[in-house]
Amino acid sequence: MPRPKSLALEDIAAAALAIADRDGLPAVSMRTVAEELGVGTMSLYRYVTDREHLETLVVDLVLSTIDTTLPPRLGWRARLTMLVERAREAMIAHPAIVPLLLVHRSSSKHSTRWGEAMMRVLADADFTGARRVIAFRTVLAYLIGALQLSQLGPLAG
């Protein structure tokens, strides 16, 4: 009979995020996360399949902090702005993970939750079909581009 699991995925993601915040994204590895948690490296593989899985957990942890509840009386532009600002605040608090957002956003359940909130606001504004998708992708591209620019600095610098 296998040993009972003693770590939670949230704990593993929090340890990886702490390393990324402190030492940068390149410092995040199965070994450094295991050291942060005080377990053996191979022990992590009972919970996390590989680095990609670990990165997805980190992205999901950061995006889980985004509040998607919106006051219904606000206009659609104000609600859309509120969602984008909340997402930006959550992501800018952990700038090292910004490069992971494009790679793992489709694997994150909290990214999906935020995206669905955005799509509801756009639907309320009578965006339909392809127009809604284009509007969503435009806002998302602007947000991620602004985050990357803030992390990397101006090109001339």
Question: Which short descriptors sum up this protein?
Answer:
157 residues; mainly alpha; 66% helix; elongated
Structure description:
- The chain has about 160 residues and is mostly helical.
- The chain is built from 8 helices and no strands.
- The protein has helices spanning about 10-25, 30-35, 40-45, 50-65, 75-90, 100-105, 110-125, 130-150.
- Helix 1 (about 10-25) packs across helix 4, helix 4 packs across helix 7 and helix 5 (about 75-90) packs parallel to helix 8 (about 130-150).
- The longest helix has 24 residues, at about 130-150.
- The radius of gyration is 18 Å and the shape is elongated.
